């Protein structure tokens, strides 16, 4: 009965509409877009995962599992911060998808065709992720496929939430430009603690999008049982540096290092953010880390 009720609640959550935009889109007759341009890396990920062709995209950051988009078969449409409006218009798209970095161009791009803002930002990451994924999936007639993918991800989330609270406190770190930044429950990566029920090693609730610059000695002082480490530069296609930086005598004294619970997160998936495949990779890696720690206490 408990599993049945949980499943029902999940389906209700997945069918919730995020905002007025999503409600309007759901009410409109759905016609499969033939030409799509996306200024959101996460949306590119989701459309690719659902098997929906995309003709225009920001090629600069189409790396790793999205590298197939780095060829002349696709139109490069500028950057997230500076879209090439002429190139987008030349595609004559039926749908333009934007994200947080390109949201300010919505009005301008709406002069070309329908624009969907796929942004996921702020609190309630997983609820936003579910709702925005479904809204986009409806636009491309892939709602059933999206629900299947989201349900599988939610099952992994539930598994993490059942394990993590009893496995010690964690600290999320981002390595960027040779420096280390700590992210707390109120930060943009706070969903790791909040949505996955992972206890935080720090009590600071001051919000910061870019994290708090910290030293190795500070990390040692908060005694984290887990370190979840994201190499931001590697996620942008630059040389990986986090592992070398974090392998030092001070970090070696932390409970996380001594318990072999330093987890180097997939940099590209975390850079993509809220794409279907990216989130699946991210949650799977965290779940695997906890499961492996149970096997090797």
From TrEMBL:
Keyword set includes Lyase: no
Compartmental location: Cell envelope
SUPFAM superfamilies found in the cross-reference section: Helical backbone' metal receptor
InterPro entries xref list: ABC_transptr_periplasmic_BD (IPR002491), Bact_iron-sidero_bind (IPR051313)
Assigned keywords, A-Z: Ion transport, Iron, Iron transport, Signal, Transport
Protein family: Belongs to the bacterial solute-binding protein 8 family.
Protein name: Iron complex transport system substrate-binding protein
């Amino acid at each position: 009965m408990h599993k049945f009720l949980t499943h029902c609640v999940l389906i209700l959550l997945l069918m919730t509409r995020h905002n007025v935009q999503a409600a309007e889109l759901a009410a409109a007759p759905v016609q499969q877009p033939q030409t799509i341009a996306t200024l959101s890396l996460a949306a590119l990920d989701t459309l690719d995962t659902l098997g929906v062709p995309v003709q225009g995209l920001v090629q600069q950051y189409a790396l790793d599992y999205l590298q197939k988009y780095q060829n002349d078969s696709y139109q490069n449409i500028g950057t997230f911060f500076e879209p090439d409006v002429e190139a987008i218009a030349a595609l004559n798209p039926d749908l333009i998808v934007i994200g947080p970095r390109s949201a300010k161009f919505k009005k301008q791009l709406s002069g070309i065709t329908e624009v969907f803002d796929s942004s996921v930002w702020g609190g309630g990451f997983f609820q936003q992720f579910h709702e925005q994924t479904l809204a986009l999936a409806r636009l491309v007639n892939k709602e059933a496929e999206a629900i299947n993918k989201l349900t599988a991800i939610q099952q992994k989330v539930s598994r993490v939430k059942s394990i993590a609270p009893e496995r010690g406190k964690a600290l999320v770190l981002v390595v960027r430009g040779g420096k280390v930044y700590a992210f707390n429950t109120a930060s943009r990566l706070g969903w790791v603690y909040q949505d996955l029920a992972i206890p935080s090693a720090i009590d600071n609730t001051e919000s910061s999008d870019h994290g708090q610059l910290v030293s190795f000695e500070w990390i040692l002082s908060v005694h984290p049982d887990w370190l979840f480490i994201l190499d931001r530069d590697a996620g942008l296609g630059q040389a990986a540096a986090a592992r070398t930086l974090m392998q030092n005598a001070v970090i070696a004294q932390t409970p996380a290092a001594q318990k072999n619970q330093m987890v180097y997160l997939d940099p590209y998936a975390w850079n993509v953010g809220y794409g279907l495949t990216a989130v699946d990779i991210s949650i799977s890696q965290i779940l695997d880390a906890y499961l492996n720690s149970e096997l090797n206490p």
